[in-house]
Amino acid sequence: MNNERIKEILLDIAPCEIDFTVTQTGKESKRVNGFYKPDTHEIFLHNLNFKSDNMLIYTAVHEYTHHLCTIEKQENDPSYGKACKVHTGEFWAKFGELIAIAEQKGYYSIGWENNEELKTLTQDIKENYLAKNGQLMQEFGKKLARAFDLCQEADIRYEDYIDRVLCLPRNAAKDIRKVGAVEVNPAIGFENMKVVASVRKKDARAEVEQEFLSGGKSPSTVREMMKQKSAQASGTDPKTKLEREKSRLEKTIAQLTQRLEYVEESLASM
After folding, report:
1. Which of 91, 111, 109 is nearest to 101 (CA)?
2. Whether the Cβ atoms of residue 162 and residue 150 lie closer than 8 Å to each other
3. Of 220, 225, 191, 228, nearest to 208 (Cα)?
4. Backbone angles phi, psi at 43, to 5 degrees
5. 34 SS3 class
6. Whole-prediction pTM
7. Among 50, 86, 119, 259, which lies 20 to 30 A Cα-Cα from 110?
8. Where do Basic and acidic residues bias regions lie (predicted)?
9. How confident is the model at residue 85 (pLDDT cuts 50, 70, 90)?
């Protein structure tokens, strides 16, 4: 598959007005399968890393996601992509969306169902590990809730009990208790159960749970969906976010200016 064909496929998956180039390096790399240069909009693919075009397309879509995210972000922040984290939840959600389109259009296929051993192993993992672990953690959460009540009754500091008796990180204990406090289907696994349990409204929880149960979406995609719905519900548009950030920055600058004046006066009096 040549560079032009890869570019055609990427544009068919998601059109983009800002031009970019695709270059197969003809090299093998142990560090990365490819990379994207945001300043020149260049996608580089170490094609000798791949045994098939299928795997090549997967990485091409990954790097193209960087291009699309960069174009979108640079509208408000020209420095985006140069000195910031780029593998964000938003990025992975976008990548999940694009790779799903690539599958629908026949450009890429994960193909795990065609491997009988992997198919059997997947069923085993889902039924005997993800689901059972989820159920166990749900019961664990109820036990921690009971321990909290007993600590309250006995005038025992629950946090100290968590820290030095159970030796659990506090945030982990908090998440486990949340999972035990609501009805969540253990089939989605403990990590996804935590996401569902974090949703306050019952109807919204059921909707998020169904997204996990239906499959085809990564946890990052589901979390980004939740984030977008929350933003829509609160009316937080990009302009409002920027105005709030501007206000925070102005306040910080004022505080730093005041501190600088104090330091300069102190130095002058020495």
Report:
1. 109
2. no
3. 225
4. -105, 125
5. strand
6. 0.77
7. 86
8. 238-248
9. confident
